[in-house]
Design brief:
Four copies of one chain form a homotetramer.
Chain A (H helix, E strand, L loop, with lengths): L16 E8 L6 H10 L7 E7 L8 E7 L2 H4 L2 H6 L4 E7 L14 E5 L2 E8 L5 H10 L9 H15 L3 H11 L5 E6 L2 E6 L8 E5 L2 E5 L3 H6 L2 E5 L5 E5 L3 E5 L9 E2 H7 L5 E2 L2 E2 H15 L6 E4 L4 H12 L7 E3 L18 H5 E3 L1 H4 L3 E6 L6 H12 L4 E6 L27 H8 L3 E4 L5 H4 L5 E2 L1 H4 L18
Parallel strand pairs in A: 14-23, 17-20, 20-21, 21-22
Antiparallel strand pairs in A: 1-4, 1-10, 2-3, 2-4, 5-6, 6-7, 7-8, 8-12, 9-10, 9-11, 12-13, 15-16, 18-19
Amino acid sequence: MSDVMEHYQDDGLHEECGVFGMYDFDGHDVARTIYYGLFALQHRGQESCGIAVSDTEGPKGKVLSSKGMGLVNEVFTQEDLDKLKGNIGVGHVRYSTAGASTRENAQPLVLNYIKGTLALAHNGNLVNAPELRRELAHDGAIFQTTIDSEVIAYHIARERVKTSSAEEAVQNAMKKLVGSYSLIVMSPRKLIGARDPFGFRPLCIGKRDNAYVLASESCALDTIGAEFVRDVEPGEMVVISPEKGIESHRELCQKEHGRCVFEYIYFARPDSVIDGMSVYQSRIIAGRCLAKDSPVDADLVVGVPESGNAAALGYSLESGIPYGTAFVKNGYVGRTFIKPKQSQRESSVRVKLNVLKDAVAGKRVIMIDDSIVRGTTSDRIVSMLKEAGAKEVHVRISSPPFLYPCYFGTDVPDSDQLIAYNRTIEEIRQIIGADSLGYLKLERLPELTGGRQFCQGCFTGKWPIDPPKEDIRGEYDA
Amino acid sequence: MSDVMEHYQDDGLHEECGVFGMYDFDGHDVARTIYYGLFALQHRGQESCGIAVSDTEGPKGKVLSSKGMGLVNEVFTQEDLDKLKGNIGVGHVRYSTAGASTRENAQPLVLNYIKGTLALAHNGNLVNAPELRRELAHDGAIFQTTIDSEVIAYHIARERVKTSSAEEAVQNAMKKLVGSYSLIVMSPRKLIGARDPFGFRPLCIGKRDNAYVLASESCALDTIGAEFVRDVEPGEMVVISPEKGIESHRELCQKEHGRCVFEYIYFARPDSVIDGMSVYQSRIIAGRCLAKDSPVDADLVVGVPESGNAAALGYSLESGIPYGTAFVKNGYVGRTFIKPKQSQRESSVRVKLNVLKDAVAGKRVIMIDDSIVRGTTSDRIVSMLKEAGAKEVHVRISSPPFLYPCYFGTDVPDSDQLIAYNRTIEEIRQIIGADSLGYLKLERLPELTGGRQFCQGCFTGKWPIDPPKEDIRGEYDA
Amino acid sequence: MSDVMEHYQDDGLHEECGVFGMYDFDGHDVARTIYYGLFALQHRGQESCGIAVSDTEGPKGKVLSSKGMGLVNEVFTQEDLDKLKGNIGVGHVRYSTAGASTRENAQPLVLNYIKGTLALAHNGNLVNAPELRRELAHDGAIFQTTIDSEVIAYHIARERVKTSSAEEAVQNAMKKLVGSYSLIVMSPRKLIGARDPFGFRPLCIGKRDNAYVLASESCALDTIGAEFVRDVEPGEMVVISPEKGIESHRELCQKEHGRCVFEYIYFARPDSVIDGMSVYQSRIIAGRCLAKDSPVDADLVVGVPESGNAAALGYSLESGIPYGTAFVKNGYVGRTFIKPKQSQRESSVRVKLNVLKDAVAGKRVIMIDDSIVRGTTSDRIVSMLKEAGAKEVHVRISSPPFLYPCYFGTDVPDSDQLIAYNRTIEEIRQIIGADSLGYLKLERLPELTGGRQFCQGCFTGKWPIDPPKEDIRGEYDA
Amino acid sequence: MSDVMEHYQDDGLHEECGVFGMYDFDGHDVARTIYYGLFALQHRGQESCGIAVSDTEGPKGKVLSSKGMGLVNEVFTQEDLDKLKGNIGVGHVRYSTAGASTRENAQPLVLNYIKGTLALAHNGNLVNAPELRRELAHDGAIFQTTIDSEVIAYHIARERVKTSSAEEAVQNAMKKLVGSYSLIVMSPRKLIGARDPFGFRPLCIGKRDNAYVLASESCALDTIGAEFVRDVEPGEMVVISPEKGIESHRELCQKEHGRCVFEYIYFARPDSVIDGMSVYQSRIIAGRCLAKDSPVDADLVVGVPESGNAAALGYSLESGIPYGTAFVKNGYVGRTFIKPKQSQRESSVRVKLNVLKDAVAGKRVIMIDDSIVRGTTSDRIVSMLKEAGAKEVHVRISSPPFLYPCYFGTDVPDSDQLIAYNRTIEEIRQIIGADSLGYLKLERLPELTGGRQFCQGCFTGKWPIDPPKEDIRGEYDA
């Protein structure tokens, strides 16, 4: 089978990537553990995945890798994992926000450069990728993928010529990168983790026996039975080696941060703890805030699964209105699922989501969702509740309205595609057919992040870094 | 690729099958709608699936079919569905309780017999299959599968020789079948649905435009946008044809029924309504009963996903103790998922389920599960809650203890493998490490089924039909 | 992936099947050797293949099998072969002459019957299959495939009820089968080979160390390093068991035979020896006869590959006209090859066959082919030679003209599709554009078979057995 | 499925690549024609293949590509070809001589660079690739493959910065490349073909209607029904564009050439004409020369298929000894074929090749082969002939003895692995067990190439270009 790939898309928001790295100082193979680590991060990207490993005891720079389109459980066979021999490795799951959805763009990127071999896994989006690409191209660089990671790799390679160690090269390269990146780099004898100075995307450190682990989210540590050590700080680079264990470089650390609040609201798994704040708690708080700020008399609070559930619970706890379940979600949708055509009687929403009529019939329902992007799905879900007999449907959104696009690693689209842009809340309410509508207040966001600084660009149009002059999303798609 | 298949197994309980049939009198193709219908029934069987269709306007008896190992979304391609032209069809999803897990055993069974072609989809287990098989074999029958459906097909074929219509043959065959069966038979011009006299397994009728639908559960009707007409009654046979619409045959209907209460407790999707009782309501009631009968002072009620959630909600509603979420389930496990080995640090339970530490730490937790089979999983889950900081873990089971095996279409194993057999509740509590343990009282079961008669064999050892003299489960596995 | 199969067809003649069985008395696994045996017989069928094995030391009747659509090298993986543990086994390669090309029809057929398990591989076509099928159907039999082998299996099963051994049952069943069959039956402890009384299809016996082998052609014995023991005689049944080695049953042997002369002319591999006559020699003789009976003055004799080459050599040896090569055949066409559409500039013939211009330009060429069926391919090949600069093209056919269909295991079509039916040789010559045309004389055929009796039905319309009253080819296709 | 690839290897010689490009000025899609073109070149590489196309009327630089491991007929589906919309394209088949056999190394290479997108297909080996790679690496280049084509692409990209057109960049890049290359470059609006100054590898131009074609061999032109225009000359670059048709650049053309004589003796298809010399004629001449220089009294001349056949015919024509066929080759070996293990009774040679006993028994046989590399296969084949009853086996080789490795695009190994190195012909004869042995005389080679200059490095150790200082074969394998 060949690889002319088709894009699989739906209406929701998408995170672009999850990264996972491991270095076993005792020499045990890591591929299989990386497999389970990626499996735990599968929610961060379902289009492609890959694992690259190296044996620090073997011939220097010998890297084995395996990548493919699809879910972790579809791409890797037992035989693949058996072949991936090595005690240092890096893995990646991908959903494409920039760069086409093709096998060429699957990560980790494995490459030969001046000092041997390098494997790279990246979560984020560079704002200055086009400039950097153009600059490199003017020097005669060639690009075989459309992903930012290739730009990063180039900079590391160029710096490596002038520096005496891989970590120095990574550190120097970081100085040129503008945007969001949580990065794992595997050099022949070191595993390096780095997070952009604003800390847009998460990255944490774990430990299991005599092995260190880097992962996008702490849930991946739980899955493999590793203990959580700490988060990589915004701007920090950590270098893992048997000689020095974990070494920290904080040259780029700064006071101003820009964590993505949507990691808490939607992207991350609720059982993850990011930068000291539990994602689950964050959602409970969002629900409580909504109950305080947008109260309504009703019989039942329900969440749109999965991310709306915790917020719904928070709303229920605060308001005293009973929590319930209104939806059954069909989780068997895979990459090859054949979607209903517009012309058919079946609809995409109904195939994936069904209403529990007995739970909602005759009731005034408060429905909590994490966000409204274009509004098309909300419209349908409200209708389904009403068809199922709900007397009233009050929609509460556990985030402020989206007004601006995101350039830092999510696929929040341009303003003209956002239902909330240039519309009043009343207008949106009418479009989606709800009896009332309430959003989380912008000033509540600090409560969700435990007071940590965050990016609010998609709500305010003011990002911690200037947005790119040109559209970086999809430009190089081939 | 060839088909030497391996068995994929886990610890839980399994339903064996889901069936779906459709007859479009207007002549529209039905394969794609059957695809979505099977998708809605995927929870009833994930090992193999298949669709067979026929064109009632085309050459008589021309049946096209497509089957394979795996999930609905893995087995069928767009191209497959495009080729399955026909306005009458039947589909099946399978988990094997009897018969090996091989492609040969995938359904629907398509066969040529005296009167042309027949396709058959079956959910259930015949108690007298070995005798029937032996009897047929003595007459020189050959068996190419190890599934009961082949025995049923033989009987229909033999009866058809002596009768004047397919429905008469099916009706006569039913008289010889002892056990559980919900059956859909597609003859060249008719779609026939039948349910055993005790009604062990569900089967219902739906309608969409000028098409009739038969399905294991009503959730499949919702998914395709069909309206629910009614359940097929225990012992009833319905014949769908353009001439007469739906025709009912009730010769085998009887007063005594034996519905499987576990359809309500565990197997069915909560959004289904079976024999007039909502599965969701049934679970809520189970939770309420537990709260009444096994009260305990605690801070939080949680369900083991997915089936424990509704019962937990019921417990919360009745007791006033707040409902919460304690677990995150990783739903990306597919047929090809590589399971952790015993020797590895990763464990099967932890890879699929993680605890929300922030939700349970320092709390007294009531954990609701639908059942305990061997007890190995419960043991691990209780430990995980405690490791996550739960002060107390009180386990409540929304069904009575399993003491006896099931011979009617589920894989409840023999007594010696059941933790509750020959053990007191206190002994079980100690084994699973809970602070207290309570089961649903047997006398509460009628409340769960809306007062309808049901089978309680796995709790009492008294089944509506005598169990088979020999073990029917797996005997013919090749 | 599912199995809605498409028929892959071309213009030539096709053999329907090859069979291979092995019994290792020392207990070694046979699957891998069967794999190479089938590989040697691949020319006899490229649509599907399968292997079934049993362990005579293991639990009685435990049969493992693996089948699939495609070539031997595509269907079986190393993992498949590793799983097929057993010291007795049977394999099959198939091209469909009767029965649709679907996975359901792939052989060996594995079935449970009164006395346990049976695996069956069959090459041939029963003339009375429809009657037998109807008869069985009237007794309530069901058919899950459209292949004759299922009819044979039924008869064996029915006889087994009344007899004391598998071989007796096979022998009795053979008495009811009319038509062509070379059969290998694997019972739990015996391997049985049988050939119809006319010996239409070949079957031979080999030996390697302490193992016996049955194979359609002797080339398969060479491939696995086994020695040739002898042919199974027309009408003979041989029973292989550790107790008695090879036991022969000749009850059905008769004087009148009906070997297929096309095994020598076209189907079999030239390195096979069938019933004591070398296929290669047979073709050399055919060429010599053509040279004697249809001489022509020319510069070069060439064969249409592959089967025409040996006859061309014979023509050259007899006539003294130099032998040459005129064509290059592209052998990389597999089951999934995308054929040129009529509307495209590329043509099916040219994609597979190219002319060596330097070999033929300016020359008078004698082109030897094994047969002309519909004439469409011959037409193109003659044109290609002329376009390449051949001054004259004299076509010589190493068989008499096809005038009647074949009902005994090849796909020679009905008379109205045969170019030679109702046409003079001169008319055919004009259609194919040759400068002269000569066929092998009917009276020469005995020389090709070493004087053995053969079937000449496709030339004379007089078959050793009456043709079926109804068309048996494709009737049951589903 | 993922892509941890395994190397499939056998004993013979291998060509590394075939290239095919097409530009349809009328705007018709070319992917399907490229498919047939690659199919005709399949003998030049069976490990991987790929097609890249672009629509010159569409958005500039939008390239679609499809690649995979395996044969042309395995890699591309109908759906793939349908998606590859574009009227300009390039294709590639690959066998790896340098660079590992992984999907990453499959060609065409598609890349973005300073001026948009470029696709590149390359046949050959650069002698200075390591130096060029090192040089580029010192400037910070990164390499994602281990193939020379990436080095070429880099040079084109770097030149493009300084030049005003793609062809100028290609021309300048060529000046830095030392070694063998037949190259097809697709820029957004031009198709460029180039051949190294020595012309090691072939490349020719064809035309069909209003489309131009570039192909490794003329047989690919025949297959798609294009007419042969002319060969690209050694050192020439041709630029195909709708404005100027074919434009020639001969700046690098020189008098000294180094055609690979093994293209004639072994690699190319006999129906190809390379640089004005028919491959078929070349082999006939080789056979005639052998008959003149190494005569022997015998009964039969046979060729080792396929490449030995034409030489055997030449020997027969010259000597008057009858030509015959001694071997039957099994052509169904695909990429996934499971090879016999050393420990098994089956052998790799016998599985692929069988002797026609009747053709050779009792005869004195002259066996013509194209070359002897390590001698292991020759040894077996001679034995097989003797076992089949040949009285004498006289081996004649249609090339001089291999004494030195090849660095220019074939896999002739190092001297210490070559049987002829440091051995007399008599010693070799004894090793392979022949009754006599003769090689083609070195001074005969000009006759085979029609007097054209050629490389005789593998016979003399004197290559037209100095061999690389370091081993270029396999160095960068990852």
